[in-house]
Amino acid sequence: MAKVRAVDRRLFLLIEIAARRLNRQADARLKAEAGVSAAQAGVLFLLLRRGERRIGALSKTLSLNPPAMTGLVDRMEKAGLVTRTTDSSDGRGAMIALTASGTDAANRADKVLKELNADLEMQLGDEVADILHDGLTRIVTDES
What we know:
By secondary structure, the chain is mostly helical.
């Protein structure tokens, strides 16, 4: 069987559809098992792994525009998951940190995300999962 040419693969569309489907599945499980949305889980995961962060750094890492990140953090602060303080090195910036409740939610979300990753790896197989990981890592780390 002939390989499909790159122009016929519609990679962007397939990635977009897969991302939406995976996000819906993750969102439903995260809400049910961790009490947070997929977007909130991303913030919680970063704060759990890397500690307190500037809101701009969170925005850049998660590829969210600043107004969307501010709205997300506002909702998370109201839910008691994070605190926002003024950056002591730059009074204009805001620092975001986990609360105890946020840490608990982050740990629950981390468990769910590990299970989702394991499910994906099982579905794809090791070889395809490795290739997909490498390709997606190139895309998200490309600064152009």
